[in-house]
Amino acid sequence: MGKTHSKVWRPKEISRDLNALLEINVDYKQAWRAKQYVMKVLLGSSKDCFSKLRIYFHNLKRHNPDTVAYIQTVSEDCFECCFYAIGSTIRAFKHFCHKVIIMDVAYLKGDFKGTILYAVAMDGNNQIPPLVHRICKKKSGLTWTWFLEKLYECVGDCQELTSVNDRADAIRVSIENVFPHAHHGLCAFHLLGNIVHSFGKNDKTKVLFWRLVKTYRRNVFEELWYRFSSTRPQVAAYLSEIPRAKWSRAFLLSKRYDYMTSNSAESMNALFVDAKKMPIIPLIEFFHRLSQEWCNKRHIEGGKRAIVLTE
């Protein structure tokens, strides 16, 4: 094998390594087809995984206390969507995490071209516990509402809950209906992306915008806003249509703990970029294993700190 290769053995690397090891000519397409065949043997086909999903969820709830799992079907028992939340992460959110939920969406790239709606939390060490996931055919207002209703079943009516996500109307309306007392915060990074898309890229606009987002004092905000509106009147008019409490730290109505973007959720998206190509059960198992590993690691680290303190 080659001395170095990525964590995922890609067709280009398979071709390179086999050619070097066995001195045979394996081109990219042959390596790709071989990998697809092996992955199907190891992970199962998408059809087989969908047929076993009920049994998998049954065992998941049986061996993980407080785990929540639902499957929604349409006519002829055809898969529509599923929702799951591992019990350990739900308990961690209720007892040890900031009451901030950051949501995002990702797109599957395997045989099932579906969508993942997911939410993450943030603990006191600024670490990211994956909270809940929903796998469905496509996103819409109804899918977000169903997702948030199941999330509500898991976490309940948390006091001073804050959600952070992009400016999609479907998410905003769903949050208002399901969590009427929660504060809906916008991701400043997505907001800046909308500004760049509408008014063009400008470094000075970017710098001033982030200063408006991150300042703590309202009098400082007003000074910056005067400069901003004087030099960027069109952008200022656009931002004036959005309540400041949704995107500026100085006007927050609830505890957002400095999480002004949805970067934490985006980090999870980058983490499972290769898992999105898997059939549905290996994909869910990826998140399940990830949650268990992280919870166990933090439990061990917490025990070590307790030992040091008692000594």
Automatic annotation (TrEMBL):
<feature type="domain" description="MULE transposase">
    <location>
        <begin position="100"/>
        <end position="192"/>
    </location>
</feature>
<dbReference type="InterPro" id="IPR018289">
    <property type="entry name" value="MULE_transposase_dom"/>
</dbReference>
<protein>
    <recommendedName>
        <fullName>MULE transposase domain-containing protein</fullName>
    </recommendedName>
</protein>
<dbReference type="Pfam" id="PF10551">
    <property type="entry name" value="MULE"/>
</dbReference>
